[in-house]
Amino acid sequence: MIFFIAALFLLTSCGAAFSKHDEFNKDYISKDGTVAIKGLFVFLIFLGHAMTYIDATGTFDLPYVKIQRYLDQMVVSMFFFYSGFGIMEQIKHRGGAYIGTIPKKRFPQLLLNMDICVVLFIILNAAIGQTFGAKQILLSLIGWESVGNSNWYIFVMLALYVVTYLSFLIIKKRNNKKAQFLGLCLATALSVLLIFAITKGKAGHAFWYDTLILYAFGMWYSFFKNIIEKVLMKNDLIYFAVFAIVALGYLEAYNIRMRTNFRLYIYTAWAVLFTLGIVMMTLKVKIGNPVLEWFGNHIFSVYMLQRLPMILLTHLGVAERHKYAFLLASLVITVLLAEIFDRCTGAIYSKIWKTKSCIFSTKRGWDKSPSLSIVFGLSSKTQWLSGLYYADFISFYSPTQLCGGGTTKSNSNELPISVPLSLFYFA
Description:
- The chain has one domain (2-426).
- It has helices at residues 2-13, 31-51, 62-71, 77-94, 96-99, 101-127, 134-140, 152-167, 177-201, 213-223, 225-232, 236-259, 264-284, 290-297, 299-305, 307-315, 318-321, 323-352, 356-360, 385-393; strands at 17-18, 23-25, 285-286, 397-401, 407-409, 417-420.
- Helix 6 (101-127) runs antiparallel to helix 8 (152-167) and helix 16 packs across helix 18 (323-352).
- The chain is mainly α.
């Protein structure tokens, strides 16, 4: 495992750019600025899942085991945060027009993609002699249960779509700050109720669901974004002072959590401070590695399909006899499956929702590569999927598209502007 961690460290380091004195990465929360961060964390999720299939007690495994225990469920923190942030950006700029797309497009698209993956897991398990009852299969189609697949995150995102829709029905026009604030308060309250409802339904053993509160945190960050940036980007002295406070708060929350039994407020504080710490680091450091960007742009398919090769290779005895070959083979097969899945579903859905024409009708300055906005590496025929995956795992907007690009002085006259990533979002 240490070799995978070393490789991940090198990938993170290669292409990283550090801001100069009193300068900040104003692209820190845009699509381009966050894609590698998402790739880093989805790779960590892959490693975490793979560890459950092998004996990780070897000398070369222990360093990663310690890292995994330290990170815990924080590997999904940024996905929730970026999702909430992006959705709130959409609400701010589109108002009720966006809210109406949730039951018509966002929710059914995510559900359908998850169900396709569930069917693949059912087929694989049937092939190796594993069967499931009708109740379990039906519940797996909504993400409440699993048939060997990763399910809980998708279930939460589906539930948060419902929360978002109900909370912001009052919004009719964009830029209605009062309505946005009330919607945010309601969404936060419903998110907390959702946490208690799920954990009760899971007999209190599903503590990882508590990380969904970071979705609401991302929304609040979007709402106060201009104020936050005005403070943090004033100069390095203020930035590092705030960062130190966040870091110390995070360490204290972590230590309290490890010394005591699980408490929701401690776990929440730990999660929020961890997320804020990562966001603050990206204000000074921009990661731009093509490998991590690939993973960051294939989040859904990598997350959902990675257990298919893990299950098959475990059944064949590879995980038990050759754990490192198991890890490498699982990674390679997952990459291939993700690419195939995205190409096939993209080709099918482009005809169902007929969105191809609106995506490619114009060339936009922020679409600087032939890769997808979200589903990285797909052909032009499947670029419509960017809307789906950006909706579920990332943000909908690239709010800091710069006039000059890159890193800009905090007192620069070049102000960031909010621009849509794809015309698909306005369909």
